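Study this chain:
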Amino acid sequence: NLSNNPGTSVFPKIAADGSNVYVVWSDNSPGTFDILFARSTDGGATFGSPVNLSGGVGFSFQPKIITSGSNIFVIWGTGCSVLFVRSADNGASFSSPINLSNGVGCGTSPADIAASNGNLDVVFRSGPASDIFLVRSTDNGASFNSPVNVSNDADEEDFPQVAASGNNVFVVWRNIPHGNTDIFFTRSTDGGATFGIPVNLSNDAGLSELAQIAASGNNVFVTWRDGTTPTGYSEIFFARSTDDGSSFSTANISNTSGDSIFPDLALSGNDVFVAWEDTTGLTAGNADAYIAASTDNAASFDTPINLGSIPGESREPQVTAASNNVYVGWSESESEIYFVSGTIETTVNPISVGIDIKPGSSPNAINPEDMGVIPVAILTTGSFDASVIDPSTIKFGPNNADAVKSSLQDVDGDGDLDMVLHFKTQQTGIACGQTSATLKGQTLAGIPIEGSDSIKVIPCQH
């Protein structure tokens, strides 16, 4: 229990960087609703006392927090403004709040923020036509550019969310044309200066809302609550793009026997996590926090799990991931903020690669007492590019010897570069009686590889 006070604690948001975990929420224990911040430096095992970030600037609600190195950025709404603070020292201190929505009328929350390559992008709803605006900072939040109208149409929009990857900026929001609601998506390829024509991602007859978005490399992920299902329950839908948002595939990832709402989304390498609030098996007015995980960049998801059934309402779970840890926080019965953590455990079958021990020689004779080195080539083939290997991870032989040298060269004359590594013979552990030796390691993306080749150990006469 992070809040643990007699007031109302709602709208938790969570971020993490390594073993540092940060949580913000809206809390009225100071007398009015302010934004409180708590941090842990031991992976969530303990948290310091909450700190008031808003400091009585007015009714403050729906915060959002992200990290970038030692920098922490927090935004929230005050009814007619979107405010921003930053910390450059892992949350030990924060700047005074500044208004990001000046100049476009009444800026409203919930707003969202994303960071990429030192740039910050903030989106919010504002103006007489309820359009979606974006402001960008190119100096880690020291200053912001003028707002850009992202939606710019006659319909009403709200609940914008933003993600960034490189120079690409992706924005989703809820579009409200005539009573129906859909999830619209647009992208910028020039750092948020201009945006393409919005695309309807949900495009169905039901209510689609509460979208969340994340991006990494060429992958863009969007999740939302959708009411157009055969069961009559609302479900958590998930859309995945592998081409920078040019196209999407969509799937139902909750598929439970209750209402699934308020999704949240987090990425860590190839792992994707979606948390949400679910009423499956509960009486009216109760809900539990659920999570579903993917280890293949959202090509598939594991069966959702309940994070712990607590009597009452576990509302709006928020998820983040850092290193091998996953953190989830939620509002319990709108009175306290609860927090749980877990470890990412995945088993990935290694890619089988072709290797050539002592390239060009046969029968690969090895004398275990030799003071020299053994060259081993990892071959580039039609299905594998040896240049993606991380040489520092490669181990060879029974003793898992490290390479003392590595280079790219074409050892088999096929015109493709192979990875050649050298291992000190006496460090490999190769001994009499062995007929093969194995090499193991990882690609630069962390994918395991493994390959074997035949050897002849000499002299080994007895």
Notes: The chain is about 0% helix and 50% strand. The helical segments are 425-428. The longest helix spans residues 425-428. The radius of gyration is 26 Å.
